[in-house]
Specification:
6 helices; 156 residues
Length: 156
């Protein structure tokens, strides 16, 4: 499969995950429930979330295309399983947190997502500086997101 086809596939899968998750979000951040929560003082303004996820999914698509282009078959299977797990954890966070209003369960989910992305960080740094830089936004954003979710669990 060509490199550009892989990029298109990963773009579709990554942005598709965001779309699917948003279908099950309900009113989301504008809900009365969310507005009533004690949120972390470092919670960014709402527009930052969309910008961050757009950048993350764009970079992650190129990261995945690069990694799958150069890995052996056995390692490729492990990478694709890790990708599928992170995709699932990403999709279900919004419904857990916003729709079902279960921030503690959402914290477990986002922590598992963080572990999956940490696996990709190790692969990225072993592979090339370009891939390390491509996965870094996802990792850093999850550090922030986990802290925001944990704050809500602890302070509400």
């Amino acid at each position: 499969m060509s490199y550009w086809i892989k990029i298109i596939i990963f773009l579709a899968l990554n942005f598709g995950a965001l779309v699917i998750g948003s279908f099950f979000t309900g009113p989301g951040a504008s809900s009365e429930w969310y507005q009533s929560l004690n949120k972390a003082p470092w919670t960014p303004p709402g527009f930052v979330f969309g910008l961050a996820w757009f950048t993350i999914m764009l970079c992650f698509s190129f990261f995945m295309a690069n990694i799958t282009e150069e890995k052996q078959a056995l390692a490729l299977n492990t990478i694709l399983i890790a990708y599928a797990l992170q995709w699932l954890f990403n999709v279900i966070w919004n419904p857990l947190f916003f729709k079902l209003q279960l921030p503690a369960l959402a914290l477990i989910d986002i922590s598992l997502l963080f572990l999956a992305v940490t696996y990709f960080v190790f692969i990225g740094f072993k592979h090339s500086i370009v891939n390390a830089l491509l996965i870094l936004p996802y990792f850093l954003w999850l550090v922030i997101a986990v802290s925001l979710n944990a704050f809500i669990v602890l302070m509400n």
